[in-house]
Write a structure and sequence with these properties.
about 110 residues, mainly alpha, Cytochrome Bc1 Complex, Chain D, domain 2, two-stranded antiparallel sheet, about 55% helix, about 10% strand, globular
Length: about 110
């Protein structure tokens, strides 16, 4: 009986580990891809807009940013990253999608 309980715990632990941060990354990545975010942004390099890692580095530790970034995504922005970068408004994203994108971007 003890062996069975140990195996059950080990399987449960590995299953919960498998659905951890990697799966969150994949879901966020796929959503960003589906919504066209990669048309202007990349993970680690500046393309048309700043990289997601640069955005995370700038805003990750500011407690106000997770609350502010949804408005930036939905309403667009200009001047946050210099005159060159203008982000088009993304009003068609749902609240849940915007929240998922913000969480994913700040986790980079």
């Amino acid at each position: 009986m003890r062996t069975y309980v140990f195996i059950l715990i080990a399987v449960s632990a590995s299953a919960s580990w498998a659905t951890g941060p990697g799966e969150d990354f994949d879901r966020g990545y796929l959503l960003a891809q589906e919504k066209g975010c990669f048309d202007c942004h990349a993970l680690g390099q500046t393309t048309v807009g700043p990289s997601f890692r640069a955005i995370a580095k700038r805003y990750r530790f500011n407690p106000q940013q997770p609350l502010r970034l949804p408005a930036v995504i939905r309403g667009g922005s200009a001047g946050h990253w210099g005159d060159r970068f203008v982000m088009w408004p993304q009003p068609r994203l749902s609240d849940q999608e915007v929240r998922q994108l913000v969480d994913w971007i700040l986790s980079q």
